[in-house]
Every structure is written in C-alpha cells, then in structure tokens.
Specification:
heterodimer; A: mainly alpha; 4 helices; B: mainly alpha
Chain lengths: 150, 170
C-alpha cells in the first residue's frame, strides 16, 4: 500500500517473511468469493455523473460570483435593496470558491473511484458532492443574495 | 549452504532451515544446475480471467461488441457542439443584449434572473455539459461491450433535444 498505488495494482516482490506464496492480495484481482460477482464492470452511469458534477460546480461557482458582483453593483447604484447589499463581501467571494474547490475535489475522487470499479464509494462521494451543490445554491440564494438565484 | 549437483529438488520435504525468516528463500538446485534454463514465475493473480482487465486499460472485449454505439456517441458529441455553436450562442447573445437594454431602461435584478434567461441560457449550458458527460458514460460502457451504453446515448440526445425545444419555444 502506497499513496501512488493504493489498490495494489502492481504486485510486489516478496521481500521479508518467506511463506512460499504472495503475501499481499490486491482487491482488484479476481478472488474466489461466494455469491454474485459485483463490481465486475466499470459503471457508465457513475462515469457520467462524476464529470457532470465537476462541470456543474464550475458553472455554479461562476454564476454565483457573477450574481454577487452584479448584485453589488446594482446595490451601489441604488437600484437594489436586498441581503446582498449588507452581507460581508468576503462571504460573497468565499462561498463560490468553496463550491468550486469542493465540487472539483469530490468530482475527482468520485471519478477515480468509479474508474477503479468501486461503485459504492463512488456513489457516496458523488451524492455528497451533489448535495453540497444543492445546499450551497439554496443558501446562497436565500441568505447571501436574498434574491431569486439562478 | 552447500549445493550438491544431482541433489533432489525440494518436493514434499521441509525446506532447509534458514538462518532467519528474513533470509532469501533457498533456490532449488535444479535452477543452478541448468544454467541455460531460468525459472520463470507466472503471477497468476495478475493474469486476466473472466474478461476483467486492469482498470483503465482501454481494451475492447473480445466476447461481444455493441454495434453502432460508437457512431451514436460520436453523433451525440458533434450534435451537441453544433447546437452550442449555432443555436445556443444566438440565445445567449440575445439574452445579453436584452439585459443591457433592461438595465438601461431602469430595471434591476429581474433583468438578470427571469424565466427567459433560465430557459434560454442556463438550460442549454446544463444540457450541453450533461450531453458530454453522458457521451463519456456511453463510451465507457461501449468499451466493456455492454448495451446499456445505448441508454446513455439516447438520454444525451433527449437532453439536447429538450433544451432545443424549450429554448425555441420561449
């Protein structure tokens, strides 16, 4: 186990205790198990949802940033009177950046898990990412902007 | 430990005692007696079985292929690009000019966040990104020779068609 090969895809040489056989078993090599052989194929659905999460987080963070900037400018011109006029500007900058960072990171993790045929882990991570995007959008619209978003 | 020529290979016997368990395993005398024939060890755990290849290796399955799915995925990607470059771009440009005129006319937030903007700008962008993702999913399934890739390709076409229809109607 190393951070560069966490699933033991490269079978190691047998150093150390000589028991006459492989001492490390890769979880990706086919092992005789009972029951249904799960995780035999890479899931195309997860392989589609992962990059979509990445794209969506990019789109959403850009939309949040532009909405915050436009809201602020309209506030300064005096045309608008909503939450966005009183909210801390640092929040208006940090929330889109956090959405971008965590969305991309979770999409990357979910995509790499999907490629390594770990469907359950990939599904959990991607659901976490989508929930994060939904909650961030809702909170941004209600608390920070006080206006209909998007 | 001395290697005697003609000694029997270790079969059904205990291995000779090693100095420590961490010493290298003793080589059978046959390996040293026949210098020209190296012993090859086959790692059966990494040999492909059941059609499961190393993850990430783009090898098509020899068992079965999905006919036509490659062309359908290609058509999906090209069609999405055509939709984005010709149809959606017009809508975005029109929306931009409408926002400018609305702001000049004295409007505020309702110029930016309205139904027309959502249907003609946001929905096409989401549809294009979703179509690319679904095309990638269909490609993954096609690599493994699974027919469910057709479902993802058709969903991609449906998404682009929905965005086109709803945007043209608005």
């Amino acid at each position: 186990m190393s951070i560069f090969d966490p699933y033991n895809q490269k079978q190691p040489e047998v150093h150390g205790l000589n028991t006459g056989s492989q001492t490390q078993v890769s979880t990706l090599a086919p092992v005789e198990t009972d029951g249904i052989r799960t995780n035999q194929y890479r899931s195309g659905a997860l392989g589609a949802l992962a990059p979509f999460l990445g794209y969506l987080s990019l789109l959403l963070s850009v939309a949040m940033g532009l909405a915050a900037a436009a809201g602020r400018m309209l506030c300064l011109e005096g045309r608008l009177d909503a939450n966005v006029c009183e909210v801390e500007p640092s929040q208006l900058v940090l929330v889109p950046l956090a959405v971008l960072f965590f969305g991309l990171v979770l999409a990357g993790i979910g995509g790499s898990l999907a490629k390594n045929r770990r469907a359950a882990g990939s599904l959990v991570v991607l659901l976490l990412g989508y929930a994060l995007l939904a909650l961030a959008t809702q909170w941004f619209g209600n608390e920070l902007l006080g206006l209909p978003f998007p | 430990m001395p290697q005697q020529a003609g000694q029997q290979p270790y079969r059904g016997q205990n291995h000779p005692q090693q100095a420590t368990p961490w010493a290298p395993p003793p080589t059978p005398p046959t390996a040293q007696a026949q210098q020209g024939q190296p012993i090859t060890v086959v790692n059966t755990m990494s040999a492909t079985s059941g059609g499961v290849t190393a993850p990430g290796a783009p090898q098509p399955q020899q068992q079965r292929a999905v006919p036509g799915l490659g062309f359908a995925t290609f058509l999906l990607v090209v069609g999405t690009i055509v939709f984005a470059a010709l149809v959606a771009r017009e809508w975005v440009v029109d929306w931009g000019t409408s926002v400018a005129t609305c702001i000049d006319g004295g409007g505020a937030w309702e110029c930016l966040s309205n139904e027309a903007g959502r249907i003609q700008v946001l929905l096409p962008i989401v549809a294009v990104l979703g179509a690319f993702s679904l095309a990638r999913g269909a490609g993954i399934e096609r690599q493994q020779g699974r027919g469910i890739g057709w479902l993802y390709a058709l969903l991609g076409f449906g998404l682009v068609g929905l965005a086109w229809a709803m945007g043209a109607a608005a």
